[in-house]
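Forgive a beginner's question, but might I ask you for the amino acids of a protein and the tokens describing how it folds?
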Amino acid sequence: MSEPFIGEVQIFGFPFAPYGWALAAGQLVPIRQQSALFSLYGIQFGGDGVNTFGLPNLASRQACGAGQSPGNSRRPMGQAFGAPTVALTAAETPMHNHAISEFEPSDPSVLTAAPTPASAIGIVGNSGFNAFAAVGASGTMMNPNAIGLSGSGAPHENLQPYLGLTYAVALTGNYPYFD
């Protein structure tokens, strides 16, 4: 392997940072011990800028290119964004309805005066759920379980497939000069 640039971030397939590297886990580093790295990073990843500075925190995170591409938000260097879970609101779900169709036969004699457990819409194992109303009953409300809201609004994971690997920062190597 060639000499890395100081501050370079690499991915390793083993669970530790090799000699001359540090885990990219957001830890604070004394400026006195890593002045060259501090001159590159500054405090964009944390620290007070007087005694300490922070390394990037890629523990349980995915890296993203800094800047802005067409149609996307600007992502400054060092900014963490995103959330491991998300709770959708009604405005974020696709437009849909829960339509119920009714059947009114031309011959009302085929209707029963009151629904029986055998003629009611129900939930398996729940004999108390009836979505039908008696024939001729005016103002009868449908059971809220038939047309009511569903879901709990609880957050759920919102992660792309990923593989846990070790991110590390080069503490030693060539200083990356720029034009």
